[in-house]
Here is the input.
Amino acid sequence: MLKQFKSAVSLVVLLVTVAGPVWATTPVSGVVAQKEQKEQKEPSVSGKVQGQLSEAIQILHSGQATNPAKAINALQRIARQGDQKARAEAMLWLGRAYRDGLAGTAKDIGMAFDYFQQAAGREGLNPEAQYELGRAYLNGEGTDRNLIAAYMWTELSLQAPSNISASAEAQKARLETLLNTVQLEKARQLVDQLATLYLQ
Here is the structure.
């Protein structure tokens, strides 16, 4: 009973953390209108920012302990100043760099989790970050293991096509074998709630 109570409390905390309190949200129609206004005002990712982002990702992919500070600094700057898509991409790669120690970056799974959470939620809506967040919850990387949250974020990552869709499908299938029917139903309800209320 205590374990079920703790799980319920964890889910409430998760929803509040990801989406903010329900009473403080804008109705879905208002969110769509705000998003459309924002898109009209914001230009697409500038060539300069995209070039910096590509260069930083290439340094991290190189596999050599070259100069991770250059890549990390560029990604942090873009995460603060780029448009929504660029910020989310930068936060995704910061999370991967800190989780995996890419190009000699010091590993910090707590920081990696924080970056994945920012890129996955309302701030970024990045499907790859949503998958990575699901993976973090599945494996307890930078957070407590939470299979319901892992399923929820993995399922959300599949709502838009991305480079990790096949991996997300495999992760979802694995989670379906780990969750009982009650947990799976709760996870699906949370996916529906987040998809309709907060991540539009």
